Amino acid sequence: MRDEALGALRLGGTLPLVPMTAEKASACLSDLAAAAEAQGLDRLVAWLGADGFDADRERLGAALSLSTHLEGLALRGPQWLDHLFDEDAGERVEALVASLDAPIPDGASETGIMTELRQAKNEACFLIALRDLFGAATPATTTRHLSRLAQAAVTRAVRFCLLDLDRKGSLKLPNSAVPEQGSGLFVLGMGKLGGEELNYSSDIDLVVLFEPEAEAVLDPPESVELYSRLARRLVKMIGERTKDGYVFRTDLRLRPDPSAMPLAVPVPTALVYYEGAGRDWERAAMIKARPIAGDPEAAAAFLRDITPFVWRRYLDFVAIGDIHAMKMRIDRHRGFESIMVAGQNVKLGRGGIREIEFFAQAQQLIAGGRNPALRLRRTDEALARLAEEGWIEPDAAEEMTEAYWFLRRVEHAVQMVADEQTHTLPEAEIDLLRIARLCNFETLDDFSRALVERLETVEARFSALFADHAPARTNEGAVALLSDAEDPAALEWLGQIGYRRLGDIGRIVHGWASGRYRATRSDAARDQLVRVLPSLLEAFARGRDPDAALAGFDRFLFGLPSGLQFFSLIASNPRLLDLLALAITAAPRLADTIALRPHVFDALLDPAFYREIPTRALLRERLGSFLREAPFFEERLARLRIFASEQRFLVGIRLLAGAIEGEAAGAAFTALADAALEALVEAVEAEFRRAHGTVPGGRLVVLGLGRLGSGELTASSDVDLMLLYDHDAEAETSDGDRPLPVSTYYTRLTQRLIAALTAPMADGVLYEVDFRLRPSGNKGPLATHIDAFRKYQREAWTWERMALTRSRPLAGDPALTEEIRAAIQAAIESHAADPLLRYDIADMRARLEVQKPARGPLDLKRLVGGLTDLEFIAQWSILSGIVPLDFIGRNTERVLTELVRRQPETPGVDALPAAMADLTRVVQLLRLGPGTAFRVEDLPAGLSERLARALDLADPSGIEPHIQDLASRTRAAFTALIPFEGVGDDRLPAG
Fold it and tell me: In sequence order, what are the residues at sequence separation of 6 or more whose Cβ sits closer than 8 angstroms to the Cβ of residue 737?
């Protein structure tokens, strides 16, 4: 029973809510109580800790257990719940929205307004979510509240920006009390925001327009730049993440011709565009366009002027075909072929929200020009009106509306889990159960049945509307596409061999003969293209996503300067074509590089390519030549990324082709990282010295650890680093124009190095970097003095000494490098007789097995008897003194080979080097492929066949049994070398 003296939270609703586990729900409530107690919220603390059953408390615990996002918000703002003892949650949401309509105070700052908006948004969204989950608000109310919150936030930000421009003299507002009046600027909310149907973690689509002759505009020719800067500032104020989060992700790409138009578009320019070049999807988008901020008179005038574009005066049945084609393109592009539960996209997939919206919009566009009553923004209202006006059956309106709100609730649940803008249901059963319970279902089976029923209803209604518009298919060969992109027989053939977006593929192939591609402009090149076209199309059709593969090839072909040699090579060497198709279909990292820089494939035309193994010396020489023409720091960073990206591709393509195996690939990826890091450290140091000078006697060394340290990097590896330094004993500051204390100097230098590695540029990051292996991990300073390093290692944990066995100096002062090598050896040698060594390593491995179990037979790092076992054995063999200290920083297979030589009598140890070699081959190839494949059946066919060849197996069916056999042998050897008897003090070795 509820203790009435404590009061109750005024959340409302009676829907049941089942937690993930009772224990998790209880823990969430305990954490919330602690947060409330820290803020002195005695009522909330008492309510949370009261005896007896309280339905709202149980449902609150369930909600927090189901959503890490809501749990985080609750812990950040327990006072939001405390307010609900005195105020209804729905009223509180409306009060928060209304508070954003208050006048902008004098002296308000951008930072202050941004903070205000984020705080209001966080509290409002927390309460909106709870009301949705508890059933206190219908989905229609939830979406309306979210939309009004977004509108209020945008309005407040626009008002601030306008007032700021007025204060600076850039505008002259007629009425500063209502700054938008007479400003000429207005913001249209598009999509769900325009229809007041915003979902829980939606971005907001905005179009910023202005009337250049408005009263407030002082200089019409400069108004585009002025208001575009305002639009950019608006996006920042609403969308930028700060310590308080963000308000709404903001997208301006629905404005006219976004690739060419400014962020703020003059109304006359927009009208000319829509009248002359507007497309049907833009007509459909404009159905929901709604002024949400800015000058209301200018907005109303624009919507009047745009009406003839959106609403044709005749019955526009062409719109049905256009919208159906739009939906079919979405299906083909996204790969939506069937209705399912796991992995279903409830927005864009079959039977999803987009089909309901298109169902309504198509018929609105048909008849809305003649019947203004159909010009409604909200989907549910449009469906009801279409039924009232006789355009659809009442049953259809009822079914589609009920399915619409059901799917919107599912969409909200998916997004509430972690505040992610996703519409796709998870794959894992436990994650699906979480969604089911957020939708107030106790079991996954009940949820699945309800979901599939709605999806099938929507698909059937949608398909019936467009039944007369299915594309025809006939039967002929592919070469005809070069002269006719819509040749029916050719498109039929494409469909038979596996392509899906037949029209798009037809247009791509037709484009190759259009004269736009340098590679096919000559008659001889086109003749060779005709010769190889069927085999080329068949090669790409063998992948899992033929359409995407061919699109990637199209980008490559567009960048090819000449095609005669290339097409001739394909004609005489089909293996090269298969490799190209394999790279695009089976190796996403290689495919991305081909798409970004098609010329990298030129190297494959060099007969010497497959014979060359890139060494550190060779790569350093080539990198030096490439950087010679880049005198400026930013340009050097850009060129380093280009070089590293291309060279990683070339190593990867050699590996994929079978020219090298995993062992050589690991050495080559590492040699590339060594060369790149050496050049980067030099560039960063030089740039840093320009501002801060040098430290007297200062020296530094960058130490590589993990796979980088042992020379076993893969195509996707990040780099584990540590920066160590030394200086004259009396040095206190650097000697530059802006001197820094010594410790600050090296810390900031390390920060610059991290930024140089990870800053996203046109070619991405150079490497993702991890400095957590430094002394004291994240709690320690980024840069470590050599003396502090020595002192720390005297008392370091076993796992930290294990990490040192895979360490290697990469760049820096040669003398300090030798001192560091000696310090590492001394740290390891001084603990060789540690009686707890075996226990620590075995205990660590046992804990990893429990905490991070293997996700499948190809999860080699986590697999029992997999890479971690082998690496731990190698590290133990160095730490224990069995393998000499000069093997520190060598690859795991070499260390294990030395262990066999020195301790051959241990059962099973002789199989370890071969096991490491095979698993290295597997992991190197897997890192080229999709990162989520943990079973052979999940791999692209070409990649699984390549794996079988690397392991000398007849076919891919033998891969998993072979790996399991290796793992069993490895685990037996691990148990013999490093026995483990359990966890706890009573299991510690005696003495």
Answer: 691, 692, 693
